[in-house]
Design brief:
Organism: Lathyrus davidii (Sweet pea)
Subcellular location: Plastid, Chloroplast
Distance between the termini: 17 Å
Number of strands: 5
Helix content: 40-55%
Family: Belongs to the universal ribosomal protein uS4 family.
CATH superfamily of the largest domain: Ribosomal protein S4/S9, N-terminal domain
Radius of gyration: 17 Å
Order of helices and strands: HHHHHHHEEEHEEH
GO molecular function, one term: structural constituent of ribosome
CATH class of the largest domain: Mainly Alpha
Strand order of the largest sheet: 2-1-3-5-4
Protein name: Small ribosomal subunit protein uS4c
Shape: globular
Number of domains: 2
Oligomer: single chain
Length: 202
């Protein structure tokens, strides 16, 4: 299944806020109307929607998400929390959380077009797994810096990088301080339901 490129509001209406997919939000009245129209959901549908929420927020294909679930299942610790850590430490998500890209799709485009350096080297793989002490910077070219500067300027004032990241906007630089803690994940999600969904599918 390919990556979703359709109407973004359609997914927000069905799944709720997806900050990684778009900065836009549904009007409050529309949200209340959608909630009132929603019928009683089956347990399967609840798990499916949590899985879809995770997939569309991080911009993954079904195959990619399943691969992450399998990797998380082999690591010691809570599978759900490890899954979220793996997704949050992706380079495209780190750029988004730093405010250097407005959305995760935009961050993916920056990486694909070779505008981003990790520890001084160009990385053009959006799924690159960042590690503590990694330094993410814009390429030393006017176009790269302008793209990132525009995103930094348009970022909501209330939006601050989580504690596992440090942003130096003047230098177009971000620092990964540590592996993210669960409470700083940028999406309201019940990751256990996602794990349950996949455990029942296999």
């Amino acid at each position: 299944m390919s990556r979703y490129r359709g109407p973004r509001f359609k997914k927000i209406r069905r799944l709720g806020a997806l900050p990684g997919l778009t900065r836009k939000e549904l009007p409050v009245r529309r949200v209340r109307r959608e909630q009132s129209l929603s019928s009683k959901k089956s347990q399967y549908r609840i798990r499916l929607e949590e899985k879809q929420k995770l997939r569309f927020h991080y911009g993954l294909t079904e195959r990619q998400l399943l691969k992450y679930v399998r990797i998380a299942g082999k690591v010691q610790g809570s599978t759900g929390q490890v899954l979220l850590q793996l997704l949050e430490m992706r380079l495209d998500n780190i750029l988004f959380r730093l405010g250097m890209a407005a959305t995760i799709p935009q961050a993916r485009q920056l990486v694909n077009h070779r505008h981003v350096l990790v520890n001084g080297r160009i990385v053009d793989i959006p799924s690159y797994r960042c590690k503590p002490e990694d330094i993410i910077t814009a390429k030393d070219e006017q176009k790269s810096r302008t793209l990132i500067q525009n995103s930094l300027k348009s970022a909501p004032r209330k939006q601050l990088p989580p504690t596992h990241l440090t942003l130096h906007p003047v230098q177009y630089k971000g620092l990964v301080n540590q592996i993210i803690h669960r409470r700083w994940v940028g999406l309201k999600i019940n990751e256990l339901l996602v794990v349950e969904y996949y455990s029942r599918q296999t």
